[in-house]
Each structure stands twice: as C-alpha cells, then as structure tokens.
From TrEMBL:
Listed Pfam families: adh_short_C2 (PF13561)
Annotated CDD domains: BKR_like_SDR_like (cd05344)
Protein's recorded name: Short-chain dehydrogenase/reductase SDR
Family the UniProt entry places it in: Belongs to the short-chain dehydrogenases/reductases (SDR) family.
Amino acid sequence: MDMGIAGRTALVCAASKGLGRGCAEALAAEGVNLVITARTAETLEATAASIRSKYGVNVQAVACDITTPEGHAAALAACPQPDILVNNAGGPPPGDFRNFTHDMWIKALEANMLTPIELIKRTIDGMIDRGFGRIVNITSSSVKAPIDVLGLSNGARSGLTGFVAGVARKVASTGVTINNLLPGTFDTDRIAVTFEAQAKAQNVSIDEVRARRAEALPAGRFGNPDEFGRTCAFLCSVHAGYIIGQNILIDGGAYPGTY
C-alpha cells in the first residue's frame, strides 16, 4: 500500500532507538524526510546515518533533551514546519507512589504531558494552514490499564490523553489528525528497566520476570519496534484521515476487556 506521504517531513522525538526509531524507520521507508532527536549524540548520529543509507531520505539529527525548553527550541529550529509530528520521550522511573517527590512528579509531567502539548501547540497551526498534518503521541498501555509500579507514567500520560481527546476533535475538519499509540510490552531498553524493578520487588531473577511476562501474553511474545513503527506510519498516511483522537492499543492481546 502506498501511504501517500513520500516527500513529507516528520519530526520524530527520541528516535535513536526503541519505538521512536521504529517509527522513524517506517516513515523513512515511505519516503518521508526526517528530523530525529535524542539525548546521546553518538547513538543518534549512527541511527541517522543508517536510515539515510537504507532508505535514501534526508535525515537531520538534533542531539537534545526534548523534554526541556532548550530541546524544544533546537528541534523546532531544525524542523519548524513538520507535516508529521511523533511525540515520544522516555518514561519516568518505576517505584512506590509513597516515594515519589514533588520534583519527580514535575519531571514526569514535563516529559510525558507538557512537552508533547508544547510541540503540538507550536506546529499545529502550520499543519492547519497547509491542510494536512499527522500527530502521533507514543504513550503507554498503562493509560488503558494502569501498571502498579508506574504511577508517575500512569498519571502524566493520562493527562496527555485527556488533552488530546478534546483538541483532536477541534481540528478534525482541517485535515489534521491527532492520535495516540499505546505500546504494551515491547522488547526495548525501557522495558528492561521495568523488569529490573519488578524482579527486585518480587525477589526473583530478571530472566524469570521476562519469561513470566512473555508466557502471560496471548501473543506469546513481546512486540518489536518495527511492527510498532509500521502502525505509526499508517496513522500518518493519507488513508488514516478518518481516525481522530483514538488510543490505539498495541499490546499482544494483554488487555482483556471487550471495549
């Protein structure tokens, strides 16, 4: 299927590895030119070089912390008028809510709620003026079914979800869509941190936690970033203009609800 977005420009945040990179690669495969961000310059440059070589698109790497005002400025200076915006940032640490300080809450909100809102605010009017825009926020399956050790993430990402629910419908008639992708258990560095916390809490090995989690999934395995990225690319395509304000759960069947 031709996604109809070749030649478009995308700003993909936190894209040096994991789910962000999966999204960047899938968009590049459709001929989309990229500006990608991440904090570690060396890793980011290596990713950019790999995508350029593999797909033949323009890729600009911006090493920054996208969760800070300085990071917003650097990313938008490189890509002030994206056609596609993929919001992504590393999640806050796991733990017992009793130990979460005010500063930890503020940092979580800045990364996983306020930064996506700021980037949407600063790019959406250009999309509206051009009559086309796709915004995809990578959130978490915890928005649908909270994860006990991820209280900071549960709260911050749910706040973003509520914001998007209103704004997506307000701009739906302009050719701009906003949707959220909710990853479940994907085989990334991030999930390794969560497994480590769970192993410590349960006094078992990390391998045992991994094995239990995989066995508990109806799919019988963890997801991989490539399949996540292809879902993102479809949401960014010309074929997805009637998908508005949705929370697309990609969790291998883990959530047991009917609705």
